[in-house]
Specification:
The chain has strands spanning 3-7, 10-13, 18-25, 33-39, 46-51, 57-59, 67-72, 77-82, 91-98, 106-107, 111-116. Strands 2, 4, 5, 6, 9, 10 and 11 form a seven-stranded mixed sheet that branches. It is globular. The protein is 0% helix and 52% strand.
């Protein structure tokens, strides 16, 4: 059974940084895409960043230039380095791994990120 466990969320002041991590278990994900989504209260879930098995990356427009996604295939982990955080980045962040579309993938339980102004 696939299990994803996120960590690294918390409270940070605007302009600060956080690093999220997601540990995946249950199988090898070397051929899977891995990514992060977020959902703020009252808003739709939003794509944040993704990284393919080829290491090609993609980012949501609102985080380009501030967030960096990386993966460690040896340890089945994906990271999200978040710099220059803004209050608008406040949300629950979810890790996802998939061999197809994001919606059909396996999702973590989420980790709260709160950015104070």
């Amino acid at each position: 059974q696939v299990q994803l466990v996120e960590s690294g969320g918390g409270l940070v002041q605007a302009g600060g940084s956080l690093r999220l991590s997601c540990a995946a278990s249950g199988r090898s994900f070397i051929s899977h895409a891995m990514g992060w989504f977020r959902q703020a209260p009252g808003k739709e879930r939003e794509f944040v960043a993704g990284i393919a098995s080829s290491m090609k990356t993609a980012y949501g427009d609102s985080v380009k230039g501030r967030f960096t996604i990386s993966r460690d295939n040896a340890n089945n982990t994906v990271h999200l380095q978040m710099n220059r955080l803004k209050p608008d980045d406040t949300a629950v962040y979810y890790c996802v791994v998939t061999s197809g579309g994001w919606e059909s993938g396996s999702w973590g339980q989420g980790t709260q990120v709160t950015v104070s102004s």
